[in-house]
Amino acid sequence: MTDLAIAPRIERPSLGQRLEKAAPLLLVPVLAVIGLVAIGNPSTWLTLTVAGLAMGMMIFIMASGMTVVFGLMDIINFGHGAFISVGAFVGFTALAWFSGLTAMPGVMPSLLAVFLAIMIAMAATGAMGYAFERVIVRPVYGSHLKQILVTMGGLIVVQQLIHVIWGPAEIYLARPQSLRGAFIFGEAAIERYRIVAVLIGLALFVAMRLILSRTKVGLLVRAGVENKEMVEALGYRIRRLFIVVFMVGSALAGLGGVMWGLYQETITAHMGSEIMILVFIVVIIGGLGSVEGCFIGALLVGLMANYTAFLAPKVALVSNIGLMVTVLMWRPQGLYPVVKAK
Amino acid sequence: MPEPLLSLTGVHTHIGQYHILQGVDFTVPDKGVTVLLGRNGAGKTTTMRTIMGLWQASRGTIRFAGRDITALDTPAIAREGIAFVPENMGIFTDLTVQENMILAATGSAPDSARLDWIFSLFPPIKTFWNLSAGNLSGGQKQMLSVARAIVEPRRLILIDEPTKGLAPAIVKAMIGALRELKRSDTTILLVEQNFAMARAVGDTVAVMDDGRIVHTGEMAALAADPALQERLMGLSLETQP
After folding, report:
1. Which is more confidently placed, B139 or A123?
2. Pick from B171, B174, B185, B172: which is nearest to B146 by CA?
3. Strands in chain A per DSSP E
4. Which of A2, A232, A342 comes nearest B75 by C-beta?
5. Which of residues 227-246 of A touch B (CB under 8 A)?
6. Which of A2, A11, A229 is facing B54, going by the closest CB pair?
7. Residue B235 distance to chain A (closest CA, Å)
8. Which residue in the set B90, B136, B176 is minimally distant from A4, CB to CB?
9. Which residue of A154, A232, A284, B44 pairs with A136 in a disulfide if CB–CB is 3.0 to 4.6 A?
């Protein structure tokens, strides 16, 4: 026992600091209220809000892997959209295999078919992520400019491979019959598929939170985002963690691709690179590397896109850029900036 | 003469175009505390990081417990039984104190008896067990950094300037903790500029200058010889504030 007679003291955060930390959580309800006031009609607002949340959840699914990859590995992966496209195309092929299930009456067989298609698409994009990391990303660790160039090159190669395998034409991806239609609440129509998208997005967010906070692998990912060197000094091989995280991020992009494809009901080789604009906005708004920030950012982007598409279609395209600029003027590092060791 | 636990022979390290370590030779005996002294920029931190594999030695040999570890990577060196407390403490501020300790343990959780011993060395670790490490004060973070290094028995602990910027009361506490670690037969290689600390815990000493070892010997002999101190470091350590 030492003579460590030091009164334990801690720098407790002040009320202001705690409020500032919680403030981003209020942005989604605040935007929803602004939407209600601007739209006026509660039924229209409810329809648009659920549509916005569903869109936000799908963008979160696609963006979550990218933000973790950036936070942990410091990799700017412009090829992330390739995994979204491949996920959608593999999901399309898998759903064709399970057409017997989707033709059956009731929701459960269709959900099972979609689930199996998602699993196959995630396995395919996860495996593709492994190859992408080994062949394309690994030689350019530490150089952002090279990463941008080489991953964009990878994206183009994958898009051309999709053309070779599935053809260059736009493909119609039919949503299973039982996932079509809408629930009617008063005068509001809520599409069934959007409810499914919201539930899957929420489940993924909760699962990611639990894994990152309750498992040793999750702790390693969070620690690695902050200080890779110290993780290695504790005896862990961070490169192995990189590969696993890159594969999971790619698989999540594949999941997002299937969900987005079923939402749009058409898939093209370029669908991934087109949605990447929103994915980048979400990742930047959330704070590079932050899963919580990515979740809130995705919901904001989804709501903003739907509200402005209804209120002022001509500015819908730039509304999310405006949202990003506004958030960055308030918090230049994003909603939940990730601490990095100096 | 017993074989040293750690030995560096003709170790050179380049960082970019800079030739930092220019043939470092010294040994760390098994058990006890070896202090690496020297002015700022002498190469002490580079030596620690080279031992740990965070910077690769461009020439020379590093042997630990009879095994050549020069070419091993950092995780492999850590698994040989070497723990590292870096100058910046390396605390994961986004994690709680408990989570920092869990990551340092090889199993799913630290051994409870070992934890009780660590709590007796560093009571704040227990007090703030479930709080974010980012909220700890500088001294508490330093305690956590050392506690993390000893969460399991290690053969060698490298500690880089544990008292840098800390209040005298914390320095005193750290001296007590290192003495307790010595009693537990842990071998420590300590980089330190605070001579009171170095003299209080050190058994042997190596003095660096310009990327080379310029003196090795017993700490007691150096502490008793102001002229030697003056010659090696340009000032008498007795006059150090």
Report:
1. A123
2. B174
3. 171-172, 182-185, 188-191, 266-267
4. A232
5. 227, 229-238
6. A229
7. 31
8. B176
9. A154
pTM metric for this prediction: 0.84
Q: Which residue has the tokens 């408990």?
A: B98
Please say whether the beta carbons of B211 and B55 come within 8 A.
Answer: no
Map tokens 């300790």 to a residue: B101
The Cα–Cα gap between A128 and A87 comes to: 10
Q: Please answer whether residues B171 and B194 qualify as being in contact, where contact means their C-beta atoms are separated by less than 8 angstroms.
A: yes
* 3-state SS, residue A11: coil
DSSP B19-59: EEEEEEEEEE-SSEEEEEE--TTSSHHHHHHHHTTSS--SE
Structure tokens at A130: 């492994």
Q: What is the mean pLDDT of chain B?
A: 90
- Tens of pLDDT, residue by residue over B61-72, are 999 999 999 999
Residues in chain B whose Cβ is within 8 Å of chain A: 52, 54, 73-75, 78-79, 84, 86, 88, 90, 92-95, 99, 102-104, 106, 108, 120-124, 127-128, 131, 134-137, 139-140, 148, 169-170, 172-173, 176-177, 179-180
Confirm if B10 and B59 have CB atoms less than 8 A apart. Answer: yes
Convert the pLDDT of each residue in A216-273 to its tens digit: 999 999 898 889 999 999 999 988 888 999 999 999 999 999 999 999 999 999 999 9
Q: How many helices (H) and strands (E) does chain B have?
A: 10, 10
Using an 8 Å Cβ cutoff, are A39 and A311 in contact?
Answer: yes
> What length does chain A have?
342
Q: Is A342 on the interface with B (CB under 8 A)?
A: yes
- Per the rule left: phi > 0, alpha: psi between -120 and 50, beta: everything else, B215 is beta
Tokens 């500015």 correspond to what residue? A315
Distance CA A99, CA B236 (A): 86
**Look-up: residue for tokens 């492994």?**
A130
Pairing of strands B156-160, B187-191: parallel
What spatial distance separates the first Cα and last Cα of chain A, rounded to whole Å?
34
**Predicted complex ipTM:** 0.92
The Cα A223–Cα A275 span in angstroms is 30
Cβ atoms of A168 and A263 within 8 Å: the answer is no
